[in-house]
Amino acid sequence: MRHxxxxxxxxxxxxxxxxxxxxxxxxLIEHKKIKTTLAKARAVQPEIEQLLSIAREDTxxxxxxxxxxxxxxxxxxxxxxxxxxxxxxxxxxxTRITKLGPRRGDGAEMALIELI
Length: 116
Known about the structure:
Layout: H1 14-31, E1 33-37, H2 38-55, H3 60-70, H4 73-87, E2 95-102, E3 109-115
Antiparallel strand pairs: 1-3, 2-3
């Protein structure tokens, strides 16, 4: 039983899961929306919401925190160009998940996660 263990494991080790979240967040920042499985979209949504909350104020400390989560300077710069202006007056709810139906190959439930 997994009582009191928050978060989804997604069948991966800790390092692999952390890299997956980082890559999904970078892709979401660069492209504004990505198509992925519903489980991955739901797992990465709190992470990207927290990152966008950090990026609402453009300070050196916020940039360092974002860079430690993203590990991509280009994505961090792009995040800090649109986040303070777009989400400055918004208190959460920066992303939207839309279900797309099952994937043809293996039947996995697909979803579109996008920045609002």
